[in-house]
Design a protein that fits this description.
The protein is an alpha+beta fold. The chain is 40% helix and 12% strand. It has 29 helices and 20 strands. Strands 2-1-3-15-16 form a 5-stranded mixed β-sheet, with helices on one face. It has a 5-stranded antiparallel β-sheet with strand order 7-6-20-19-18, with helices on both faces. Helix 5 crosses helix 7 (172-182) and helix 19 crosses helix 21.
């Protein structure tokens, strides 16, 4: 056919054009499923901005949705001309002169790239095709995606085809509007409306040229040119955009000079939510699925997933109720304790005089103020001391008030927070998740984002190590002074821990008694016997993932860990020695109900069933042994029916900063932490700040509610009988003596105050 063309060069040109047409037709038709989906004209006329994903409780009731507020488009007339001009001048100066693809810009960009000056050649319409119709996403890929280079050519050609279709359907104004409503601006801001509100607390029609240039400048690299995290680079990029606007006649020289000198005046006070049903649980699910979404190319905020969790709605309700009830009382106790005194203190009880100043310096706005006022402390101080109207969290509901930033810092620093999680070890299912006291005001999740000193809740790992290496629950040690020499980072150290009572009784005690009463001196002796390196090894073996500094005080909880990993580790004992990967999500489907993924329990035998059962017997010592630190649970009569048994361990870190309770029943393991977000804010006595007085009451109130609801299926009853033959002696009742010297659940001040954190964390 082509031989009829006598001119060789013309013949080659016709052949090339012919195969280009065939190639584009093949892409459009997805020939042999090689090229994947391409949007048709119906898709172009009715674009789907996004599909919200939904997350459900275990019973199928809705928890919340994932979607972006900006997916409701603004109209062209609601967008400042400065935004339009900045966008066109920077991203596609020939926008009004092409029909979707600018071949001149494409070839010149290739030439520039070949010379080492890499720049994009995509038009605004092509970028819209990529953003709105996801021409490079999973569903748009065919078999050809596995062929390097060729797949890139296909992606680009698909963008061209889609861009031509868009230009055929929409006017230039409509294209700009669609683009600005879908483009990401970073910091979880998608679309121009959300971006202007987030960064400047303005609607899109209110921006100045400098503000418009700042946002448009971010489109090149949203993280690199983010004005919050990279203000210097943001200014440089903004000025480049302003220069483009001047070059193409969109700004006068006077306007350019004026905006060039303007600092970036961010207003970060807008607090609009980015999704529906925001909660610690909703955010936890998002974090839990982050890797799965990345590996499988799904977007929670766009792909319309249905996510089914393990969370029981009733247990979640009971957990939240118990937290609200007890934390309200704890906050009153804390306020009464300190009165008008400032509670930010070091472990010697001295007020930290620069606490407020350091808190100011940690705020994102501080660096911007420094730049704006050239490090002049007078206007910066004035900014923080200027009163403003705001809403604040209280245990009686939101309150309208007038606070300066300093007032706000002082107010929120005094508030106690908490983290709580319950798991069913036999199935690995997480049953409730409370990340804090109020998600709207405190976003940081104290279940698995926060890590705090574990105190005496870490002691069981020392006893586990002992039981798994020749010791028995009946082996006895004497409560006496202990001095342990060790080397830390090349320096010779001496550790001499005290009991919370400041006394050593000289009493000979079984290991079960010592753990139940949380005796530091005996735990220290045991640590020296089995080795602190070995204790670290066992803690990691049963489920602790945080790095642990191997020093003698490790057994008293001197390291930081999360509620999540502590619950996971304790679950190993109830699960016959099998470590589990906790399940938060069981199944994910698409909008049509097709199952995309299912998650099953993964477990690994890490300790023997005999050792696991003996540890459960040890945990019961907190209730049954003299001076047991869990005995405050007797105050909850709803727990003690039908021969019910509960085991657990309290914990308090140095200075009563962190209060913990780890509760174990025959079916469930619950972990609870209580403290202030800043470690400098804490109680000052064992009577007010120990885990038995802060975290334990939440567990008691929660389990009363659980047992009172027969529909949940968690019944009263004793711990399981031994799963295997127990070869070690364990039945050695302690003498029931009258004592109050061991009931405290905190630690004394250390001998060496320079090692206060390492040497005293972990009181019983």
């Amino acid at each position: 056919m082509f031989r009829r063309i006598k001119n060789r060069f013309l013949r080659y040109l016709v052949i090339f054009i012919y195969f280009v047409i065939i190639f584009f037709c093949s892409i459009e038709l997805n020939f042999l499923w090689l090229f994947g989906y391409s949007p048709d004209m119906q898709d172009i006329k009715n674009p789907s901005m996004s599909l919200s994903s939904e997350v459900y409780y275990a019973d199928g009731t809705l928890i919340g949705r994932y979607f972006k507020e900006n997916r409701s488009p603004v109209e062209y007339k609601e967008i400042s001309p400065y935004i339009i001009n900045a966008l066109v001048s920077t991203e596609d100066v020939r926008f009004y002169n092409h029909h979707g693809v600018d071949f001149y810009s494409f070839f010149t960009s290739m030439l520039s790239t070949a010379k080492g000056d890499k720049r994009g050649g995509s038009t605004i319409t092509q970028q819209l095709a990529k953003n709105l119709f996801e021409t490079r996403k999973r569903k748009s890929q065919g078999i050809i995606k596995h062929v390097p280079l060729i797949n890139t050519v296909v992606y680009k050609c698909k963008e061209w085809l889609t861009a031509f279709k868009i230009e055929h359907v929409y006017s230039k104004q409509e294209i700009l509007t669609l683009y600005l409503n879908t483009v990401p601006f970073g910091s979880n801001s998608f679309g121009i409306k959300t971006a202007t509100l987030k960064f400047f607390n303005k609607t899109p029609d209110q921006l100045t040229p400098a503000e418009a240039a700042t946002l448009v400048g971010m489109l090149k690299a949203t993280s690199t040119y983010n004005p919050i995290s990279n203000p210097r680079r943001s200014v440089e990029r903004r000025n480049t955009v302003l220069a483009k606007m001047l070059k193409y006649g969109k700004l006068t020289k006077t306007e350019y000079d004026e905006n060039l000198q303007t600092p970036i005046n961010l207003d970060l006070s807008y607090t609009g939510n980015e999704g529906q049903g925001d909660s610690y649980l909703r955010e936890a699910v998002e974090r839990w699925l982050k890797k799965w979404c990345h590996d499988n190319d799904y977007d929670l905020y766009n792909d319309g997933l249905k996510i089914y969790t393990t969370i029981d709605p009733k247990m979640q309700q009971y957990a939240e109720e118990a937290v609200a009830e007890k934390m309200k009382m704890l906050q009153k106790r804390f306020n009464d304790l300190w009165g008008k005194k400032n509670p930010w203190r070091d472990l010697d009880g001295k007020e930290i005089v620069d606490f407020i100043k350091k808190a100011e310096e940690h705020l994102p706005i501080y660096a911007l103020l420094q730049k704006k006022y050239h490090n002049d402390t007078v206007p910066i101080k004035k900014y923080f001391e200027t009163p403003r109207k705001m809403k604040v969290f209280t245990w009686k509901g939101e309150r309208d008030t007038t606070f300066s930033s300093v007032d706000s810092i002082k107010y929120y620093a005094r508030l106690l927070n908490t983290g709580m999680m319950t798991i069913e070890p036999s199935t690995g299912k997480i049953k409730d998740w409370v990340g804090g006291i109020n998600f709207k005001y405190f976003n940081y999740d104290h279940v698995n984002q926060s890590k705090r000193q574990a105190g005496s809740t870490f002691k069981p790992f020392a006893y586990l190590t002992a039981l798994d290496n020749g010791f028995t629950p009946c082996d006895k040690f004497t409560d006496q002074f202990v001095s342990i020499k060790y080397t830390d980072e090349g320096r010779q150290q001496v550790w001499e821990p005290k009991n919370a009572s400041f006394k050593f009784t000289g009493q000979e005690m079984s290991l079960r008694w010592a753990m139940g009463a949380s005796v530091n001196s005996i735990t220290a002796q045991l640590t020296e016997k089995v080795g602190w390196d070995k204790i670290v090894e066992y803690a990691h073996k049963v489920g602790i993932e945080s790095p642990l500094k191997s020093v003698p005080s490790v057994s008293l909880g001197s390291n930081d860990v999360s509620v999540y990993e502590m619950v996971r580790a304790y679950s190993t004992f109830l699960n016959k020695g099998k470590k589990i990967d906790p399940l938060l999500v069981t199944k994910i489907t698409n909008q049509d109900g097709d199952v995309l993924a299912e998650f099953d329990l993964k477990s690994e035998q890490v300790i023997s069933p005999e050792t696991a059962w003996l540890m459960l017997y040890m945990f019961r010592g907190g209730m049954e042994e003299p001076g047991g630190t869990s005995q405050a649970l007797w105050e909850y009569p709803g727990l003690w029916k039908k021969n019910n048994q509960i085991g657990g361990k309290t914990g308090t870190s140095s200075g009563y900063v962190d209060g913990w309770y780890m509760g174990v029943t025959k079916d469930l393991v619950t972990g609870i932490w209580v403290g202030a977000d800043d470690r400098s804010v804490h109680f000052n006595s064992s009577e007010t700040g120990e885990g038995s007085h802060t975290a334990l009451p939440i567990f008691g109130a929660f389990m009363e509610k659980v047992y009172a609801d027969p529909k949940l299926g968690y019944t009263y009853g004793p711990f399981p009988k031994p799963w295997v033959k127990i070869t070690k002696e364990y039945d050695c009742p302690s003498p029931h003596i009258d004592t109050d010297s061991l009931t405290n659940d905190s630690l004394t001040m250390p001998i060496d105050t320079n090692k206060i954190k390492a040497d005293t964390a972990g009181g019983g």
